[in-house]
Amino acid sequence: MSFDALPATETVRRAATATGERTEPIELLGRVPYGRLATSMRALPFLAVARHIVSDGRILLRMHSGFGHHEACNGSVVAYGADNYDDAASGDGGSLWSVQFTGPAEIVHLCPEQEELFGAAPVSVDGEPYAPAYLRVDPHFVTEHTLAF
Q1: With contact defined as beta carbons under 8 Å apart, do 137 and 105 qualify?
Q2: Cα(38)–Cα(53) distance, rounded to whole angstroms?
Q3: What is the per-residue pLDDT across 43-52, written as a single tens digit (0 to 9) for each?
Q4: Which end of the chain is least crowded, N or C, by CB within 10 Å?
Q5: Considering its fold, how many domains does the chain have in total?
Q6: Residue 81 lies in a domain
Q7: CA angle 140-144-147, nearest 5°?
Q8: Which CATH number fits the domain that encloses residue 104?
Q9: How far is CA 141 from CA 8, 22, 87, in A?
Q10: Is residue 52 domain-resident?
């Protein structure tokens, strides 16, 4: 099966949440601000933290440009994941979830209104001034897992 033949997000099953409501896995991303981007650079795998928003069924990511990770992702298939596992530390109980998806990524230049949706940017990364880079990821394969307590 080719990558393009994989199901789009519209065909992924709806998942139950702690309240019993049904929601799309991509919609869960709107409940947390950060996740982890995975791909490879010079044949070595890496994970990078990224801020995300969901826009028109696609995921927009903001990450620090100083390491060149955004360039390694441009034109490649990447994986991105986010979860609400911090809720476990708060003792709220209920269910925990994680969402992972894969899809092609491309560098994008956002308009000021889109940039504002990300909120305040970090001041620095590892002591260096933060310089944002933006990626758009078109999710082709989406999974969601829940842990109920």
Answers
A1: yes
A2: 17
A3: 899 999 999 9
A4: N
A5: 1
A6: no
A7: 170
A8: 2.30.110.10
A9: 7, 19, 26
A10: yes
